[in-house]
Each structure stands twice: as structure tokens, then as C-alpha cells.
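Re: the request from the purification team.
They wanted to know what the chain is likely to look like in 3D before they choose a buffer screen. I agreed to run a prediction and write the result into the notebook, where they can find it.
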Amino acid sequence: MRFGKLQKKANNRNLLLKIYFITGSVLLLVLFIIFTNIVINDVKKDVQIVPDLYSKFVGMPTDVNLEHFLFQYFMEEILPGIDYPIILTDSLKVPFSWENIEIPKENFDQLEIRQQNILKSMVRRMESKHSMIPLKLSDEDDKIYSYVFYGDSQTMKQLKMMPYVGMAFIFLYIFLGMYGVYTIKKTERDILWVGLAKETAHQFGTPLSSLGGWIDVLHSKMGNCKDKKDLQGMLEFMQGDVERLSTVASRFGKVGSVMKFQSCSLHDIILETIDYFERRLPAVSNKIEIKFESEIKDKKINLDPDLIKWTLENMFKNCIDSMKQKDGNIGVKAFSHKNKTYIHIADEGSGMPKKMFKKIFRPGVTNKERGWGLGLSLANRIVEEYHNGKIKVLESEVGIGTTFEIVLPEV
């Protein structure tokens, strides 16, 4: 049921992503067109001054003083419509008049030093941008009587900002799209994990029930058996394996479920896992010894003991597999520091290059010739996603060995 809900959720996200790309593209285009039209309209207003002046000049009576007409037109028509700063200076570039600047229109010498410095700084900045007009009596006259310095109009600022605004929208659009793709891929991986785990647990269920039933039948028939001792031993082994399979099925069943933590001794969990592997180490052709150093014997933390055991088993199995061709030790150290419990698991196996430190926890990545590459990936999921901890390769050297670090919060 839960798998079906996750699948439906993923399909909904796929649909939302498609809608996002379609509507996002249309919206970006519409916004760009609107912004462009706003700028174009502002440009039209700016250039409208020229045809307006021309029409008035053509319709002007012949007996009107031209200089007076131009001065009046500038003061009444042009200057009020200007939205950019203008500074008039003398030939030495000392300001004597200014517009659209938040400084009182007083005599320059009567201004505060701070206000004078602001005007001078603006003049220098405008001059560096060549935003100035020298005023002469005629083109043939080399003498400059004053200067007109001007800044950028609102339209010019919008034009300058236009490519940056466009790029910002595009980058935001791409970023959100990539995040959506990442989220969907992650959801699909979650569905794969949960679906595989649930299906595995389900597949284990039927044969486990059957095996349990047959063991009960054998127990009931032991009264008629001549060699009870050997049969009893076999039944105990079978019972142990069935319990082991039940534990594995239970672990898979927890994947994708809500965790129910309990206060446990991590020291005892580690010790139990080490004992489990030590009983099986004689089966390995080379000599491997597990050494455990603990500083957390009396400490209890909230966790899921079954999943932590599974994590440790995967870690130990990975260490043993890396030491297939050599003797050596597996060192386990557990200690507490700043409300966190640390577990260091070090082997003397084949090691790995630094570029594999993060990749080794990805599904399907393995250094072994055979295997699915899911053990460390599962350990990573249990520690980081279910227990809000951290797992990483602390150090490793090819041919020397690897040290893994698991960090679990104590609160």
C-alpha cells in the first residue's frame, strides 16, 4: 500500500515538473516582453522631446526671440521631465547649479563640507564616464565657459539592468528545474529502495512460516526418534537460522517505515555483533582478529537496535571482504564527545583511493569483483536518514587499510 502511495507521489511530481517547465518558459517570455515594452515606452518619452521641440519651433512666430524661446522651453518643458542628475559648473568644474540631487539649491560656498564633497565626487564620476557637455559660444571658439554634467536616466538604468535581470531569471529558472529533477530522481531511488525492501520482506515471510511449522512438527515427533541428541542439535541450528532469517525480514520491513527508537546500550550492540562475526571468522582461510576498545559501557542512546546491528554487520562484512587475501586486525573503537557517540572501524585490507571516499556509499558502487554495492549504501541510509547521524571514510590508503567513522547523536 505504501509503495503504491510513493509511486503515485512520484508520478505527481513528474507531472508538476512538466507543468513547471512549460509554464516557466511561458512566464519568462511574458515577463521579458513586459519589461522590454516598459523600457521602450520610457525611451519613447525621452525622445519625444525632440519632435515636440521641432513642432513648436516650426509653429513659432517669426518675431519671437529664439534664445528666450529655447531657454523657456528648457526650463518649463525639458527640465521638469528629467529624472537624472544634472550639475552645471564653471570652467574650473566648480558646481553652481544642480537638479535631481538631494542637496539644497544654495550657493556652493554656503553648503556643508560633506555636501560639497558629494557634488565634487559626482562631477568626477560623471567626467570619468564622459557624461559631460562643454559649453562654448561657437564651435570655432576654443574657450569653454562652463560644463553640463549629467548622470544616467531611469531608462538608461533599466537598459543596463535588463541583461542582468534576464540572466537572474534564467539562472533561477534553471536552478529550480534542476532541483526538481534531483528531487524526482531521489524519490525514484527511495521508491526503488522501499519497494525492494518491502518485497524482500514479503518474500521471506512465506518460507519462514513454513520452516517454523516444520520445526514444530519435528519437535513433536522427537519422542519416537532413537538419536534424539543429534536431532535436537540439528533442530537448534535450524531454529537459529530461522530466527536469523526472521530478523533479516524484519529489518527489510523497517525500510521506509516510521522508526520507533528505544534507549539502548550501543556498547552491548557492538559487542553482540562482534561475537556473531567471531564465531564465523574460523571459516575464513586467513587469520583475522577483531579488537574492541570501548569508552561507552555505561552510556545509552536512543536508536533502533536492529537497524544499527544491520549497519555494523555490513561494515564488518565489508572489512572482512577487503582482507580476503591477507591476515590482520579489525579495530573497533567507541567513544563519546560533545553529546555524540563515535564508532571507528578500521581494517587492514585493500584500502581505496581518496576519490572513492564519497562514492563508496552510493548504490551499486563496490571495490569487490562480485556484489551489488548495497551494503555501505544501506549503512549510509540507516545512519544518516533514519538516525540523523553521519558516516564517512575517515582515512584510507591503498594496500594499507581503511578507517570508517560513524557518528550518532546522543539526544
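For the purification team: The CA atoms of residues 227 and 376 lie 45 Å apart.
Please add any questions underneath this entry.
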